[in-house]
């Protein structure tokens, strides 16, 4: 087939794909709704949720998780559009920077003898299993949406999907979790999110090629 | 160059709004540039292979045209897709090439050779489609039939032809990986 013939074929194909954002939302919203319903149904919200919302350190879990979710997924969408330049992931770094600063502040502010207890907490294994479990559907939804895009750096795009999904999953898990010390949640929520990100990076490197 | 780029943007915007003629002009306008990129990177592999790669890039641009945001620069978008697909195509053919990012401004657009170049891989891949899809692609491409003529010849509604054509193009893009590797 000659190239002019191919162009004639392409010009006759007028079916357009829906915009990327709409595709992402169509998958992500149900995925998050299921994750939220699952957490509230199976584990339930913490008993003192209303009082906890008056504690800025506790609220920071939601702020950091939601900010990470929004910034990383925006970066993922931009990575799915060719020619968007190199700096698209830089805004995402704000979240780990703030989380790191918070962790250091908490380390200094917590008395010596309390540090280890604050960091290990009581619900470590629940945290490290639930956040990845809540991330599964959002990661799948995000990767499927990005497959319709054109990520020229598939692994990085996969990483942003994992980071964003992990952040949102952490914010959902925070409804249940009673650990309010940054020494706990920056460390272990962070580790759980890193795990999700690694898995999504590896999947993305293959699944997002086009 | 900037003027030309603006033209590309206008053409592509009109195309996305449903103007098939503007879209054909857009694809004709970018193909010499894409061909220049392919030849500057892999000219040693011969014109036919380069032309296959040009077609891969055009097909990718077609199937991913919803990732261009109206009003944003077209040229970086086209270059990024071409770079990705050219590297990928040569890698799949067992040759590693690197395509630097910034030097496409220096690439001379290349017209197709004196004999209108055939892309043989594409022909084989069309043969790997199911008969009806291959027939639709050939009728429209080689014979120049319209959607309506194709539908009449194959006893299909126009809507069914459109859907079948779109799916056939997606499969052609997907087949490339399996075929070359």
Features:
heterodimer; A: 210 residues; mainly alpha; 9 helices; 0% strand; elongated; B: 181 residues; Arc Repressor Mutant, subunit A; 8 helices
Provide a short characterization of the protein structure.
The complex is a heterodimer of chains A (210) and B (181). Chain A is mostly helical and 210 residues long.
Verbal overview:
The complex is a heterodimer of chains A (210) and B (181). Chain A contains nine helices and no strands. Chain A has 210 residues and is an all-alpha fold. Chain B folds into two domains: 2-100, RNA polymerase sigma factor, region 2, helix turn helix motif (Rna Polymerase Sigma Factor, Chain: A); 116-180, Winged helix-like DNA-binding domain superfamily/Winged helix DNA-binding domain (Arc Repressor Mutant, subunit A). Helices cover 69% and strands 0% of the residues of chain B. Chain B has eight helices and no strands. The chains are: A mainly alpha (210), B mainly alpha (181). Chains A and B meet through α1 of A and α2, α3, α4, α5 and α6 of B.
Rg of chain B (CA only): 17 Å
Overall strand count of chain B: 0
Main pleated sheet of chain A: none
- Mean pLDDT reading of chain A: 94
Spans where pLDDT lies below 50 across 5 or more residues of chain B: none
Distance between the termini of chain A: 22 Å
- The CATH class of the largest domain in chain B: Mainly Alpha
Give helix and strand order of chain A, one letter per element, not per position: HHHHHHHHH
Separate helix tally of chain A: 9
Q: How much β-strand is present in the residues of chain B?
A: under 5%
Taken in chain order, the helices and strands of chain B follow as HHHHHHHH
Provide the number of structural domains of chain B: 2
Helix content of chain B: 55-70%
Report the strand count of chain A: 0
């Amino acid at each position: 087939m000659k190239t002019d013939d191919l162009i004639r074929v392409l010009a006759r194909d007028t079916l357009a794909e829906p915009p990327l954002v709409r595709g992402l939302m169509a998958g992500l919203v149900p995925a998050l709704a299921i994750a939220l319903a699952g957490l509230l149904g199976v584990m339930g919200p913490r008993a003192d949720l209303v009082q906890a919302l008056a504690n800025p350190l506790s609220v920071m879990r939601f702020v950091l998780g939601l900010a990470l979710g929004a910034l990383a997924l925006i970066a993922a969408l931009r990575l799915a559009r060719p020619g968007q330049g190199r700096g698209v992931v830089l805004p995402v770094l704000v979240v780990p920077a703030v989380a790191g600063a918070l962790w250091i502040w908490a380390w200094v502010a917590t008395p010596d003898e309390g540090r280890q207890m604050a960091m290990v907490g009581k619900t470590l294994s629940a945290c490290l299993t639930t956040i990845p479990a809540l991330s599964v559907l959002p990661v799948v939804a995000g990767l499927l949406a990005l497959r319709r895009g054109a990520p020229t750096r598939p692994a990085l795009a996969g990483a942003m999907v994992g980071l964003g999904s992990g952040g949102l999953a952490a914010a959902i898990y925070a409804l249940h979790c009673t650990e309010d010390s940054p020494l706990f949640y920056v460390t272990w929520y962070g580790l759980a999110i890193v795990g999700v990100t690694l898995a999504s990076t590896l999947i993305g490197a293959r699944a997002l090629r086009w | 160059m900037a003027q030309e780029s603006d033209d590309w943007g206008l053409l592509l915007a009109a195309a996305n709004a449903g103007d098939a003629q503007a879209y054909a002009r857009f694809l004709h306008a970018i193909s010499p540039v894409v061909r220049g990129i392919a030849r500057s990177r892999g000219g040693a592999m011969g014109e036919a292979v380069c032309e296959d790669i040009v077609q891969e890039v055009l097909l990718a641009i077609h199937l991913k045209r919803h990732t261009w945001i109206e009003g944003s620069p077209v040229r970086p978008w086209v270059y990024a897709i071409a770079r990705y697909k050219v590297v990928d195509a040569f890698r799949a053919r067992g040759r590693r090439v690197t395509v630097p990012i910034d030097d496409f401004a220096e690439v001379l657009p290349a017209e197709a050779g004196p004999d209108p170049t055939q892309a043989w891989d594409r022909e084989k891949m069309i043969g790997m489609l199911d008969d009806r899809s291959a027939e639709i692609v050939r009728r429209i491409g080689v014979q120049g039939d319209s959607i309506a003529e194709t539908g009449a010849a194959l006893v299909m509604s126009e809507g069914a032809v459109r859907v079948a054509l779109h799916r056939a193009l997606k499969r052609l893009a997907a087949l490339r990986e399996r075929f070359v590797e």
